[in-house]
């Protein structure tokens, strides 16, 4: 009998590069999802097929217990089975068919969507009795372990717990969370810039190492433990001073955004999103000129309250908060102007 499971992509409203610093984030699920159809086998072979890679690479196979890093998409599958086995869960081989509408390299957490969808399918197929937070932990262990991407747990928590109707305010240290509806009569705009990114490559690792070194110099476990007032008390060398300033002020912005959403204040939330992008561009230096242009164009549209890069950076997508009745027209104007000025091929993902 086939088991079917799915998980969404996510867009982060605010709180970027704070999750691996034990900080606060606020993702929301996207309509795009990864769908997995899984059939249990009588042996220990894993046979997976994906509709989202080149035809020559669509079918992969390995033996449970023989998971290893290949530098290919199968690493996400193998990472999940290894993490589940290491937890002591008993599973057998399986066939998995994977289809996803979450675009790769767009900053919408396509890998976490795949990992959580597979954990859900295995949970159902083998009666593992994993709760949502534990499934997110398994998926996160897969990506930081066998895959080797030094990401925080936001993406997996969002894929496991977030919905499309409310953002997920998440404390990544405690994993406590609260669902936060968007301000009334607002809608998100999400546009892929056409510039792809990859977490497992150089600059993301560099940023994480810089944050860890800054925390060490402050004498704390993570930059989560540093306040804005404390930033001036330790003389950090460049660029550590800028990296720390982004993380510390971004945590404050997430908390302020939570308060704005509780009040239904779209203008304040939009202003915080704008400030977040400036910080990511200037202090954390993870934006790119095409993305900055896309944000600039979005901010200039009537009915748009604020816009920012979303995701790890170095390309990917932007998210904008718009008045509901202005969102569709604004999105079309944004992509038209951006395509003409940047020469890229943007895609409207939401709405």
Care to describe what's here?
It is a single chain. The protein has helices at 74-86, 110-126, 132-147, 154-161, 202-218, 240-263, 266-282, 289-299, 327-342, and strands at residues 2-14, 24-40, 45-50, 59-63, 94-100, 166-171, 177-181, 186-192, 304-310, 317-323, 347-350. By secondary structure, the protein is an alpha+beta fold. The chain folds into two domains: 2-13 and 31-152, Ribosomal Protein S5, domain 2 (2-Layer Sandwich), CATH 3.30.230.10; 185-350, GHMP kinase, C-terminal domain (Alpha-Beta Plaits), CATH 3.30.70. Strands 1, 2, 3, 4, 5, 6 and 7 form a seven-stranded mixed sheet that branches. Helix 1 crosses helix 2, helix 1 crosses helix 3 (132-147) and helix 8 (289-299) runs antiparallel to helix 9. The longest helix has 24 residues, at 240-263.
In short:
40% of the residues lie in helices and 24% in strands. The chain is α+β, with helices and mostly antiparallel strands and 351 residues long.
Topology overview:
Layout: E1 2-14, E2 24-40, E3 45-50, E4 59-63, H1 74-86, E5 94-100, H2 110-126, H3 132-147, H4 154-161, E6 166-171, E7 177-181, E8 186-192, H5 202-218, H6 240-263, H7 266-282, H8 289-299, E9 304-310, E10 317-323, H9 327-342, E11 347-350
Parallel strand pairs: 3-5
Antiparallel strand pairs: 1-2, 2-5, 2-6, 3-4, 6-7, 8-10, 8-11, 9-10
């Amino acid at each position: 009998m086939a088991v079917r499971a799915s998980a969404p992509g996510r867009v982060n409203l605010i709180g970027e590069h704070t999750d691996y610093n034990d900080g606060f984030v606020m993702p929301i699920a996207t309509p795009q999802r990864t769908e997995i159809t899984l059939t249990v086998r009588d042996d220990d072979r894993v046979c997976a097929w994906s509709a989202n890679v080149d035809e020559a690479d669509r079918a992969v196979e390995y033996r449970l217990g023989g998971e290893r890093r290949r530098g290919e998409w199968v690493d996400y599958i193998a990472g999940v089975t290894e993490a589940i086995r290491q937890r002591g869960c008993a599973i057998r081989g399986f066939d998995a068919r994977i289809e996803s509408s979450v675009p790769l390299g767009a900053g919408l957490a396509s890998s976490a969507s795949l990992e959580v969808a597979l954990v859900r399918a295995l949970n159902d197929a083998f009666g593992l009795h994993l709760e949502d937070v534990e499934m997110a932990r398994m998926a996160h262990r897969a990506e930081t372990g066998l895959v080797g991407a030094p990401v925080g747990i936001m993406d997996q928590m969002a894929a496991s717990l977030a919905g499309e109707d409310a953002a997920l305010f998440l404390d990544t240290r405690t994993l406590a969370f609260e669902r936060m509806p968007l301000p009334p009569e607002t809608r998100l705009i999400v546009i892929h810039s056409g510039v792809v990114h990859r977490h497992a490559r150089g600059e993301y690792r560099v940023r994480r190492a810089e944050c860890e070194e800054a925390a060490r110099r402050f004498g704390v476990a993570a930059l989560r433990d540093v306040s804005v007032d404390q930033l001036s008390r330790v003389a950090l060398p460049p660029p550590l001073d800028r990296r720390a300033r982004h993380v510390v002020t971004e945590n404050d912005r997430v908390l302020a955004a939570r308060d704005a959403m509780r009040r239904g204040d779209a203008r304040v939330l939009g202003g915080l999103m704008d400030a977040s992008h400036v910080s990511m561009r200037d202090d954390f230096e993870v934006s790119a000129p095409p993305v900055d242009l896309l944000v600039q164009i979005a901010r200039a549209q009537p009915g748009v309250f604020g816009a920012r890069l979303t995701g790890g950076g170095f390309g990917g997508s932007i998210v904008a908060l718009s008045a509901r009745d202005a969102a569709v027209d604004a999105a079309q104007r944004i992509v038209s102007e951006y395509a003409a000025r940047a020469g890229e091929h943007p895609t409207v993902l939401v709405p």
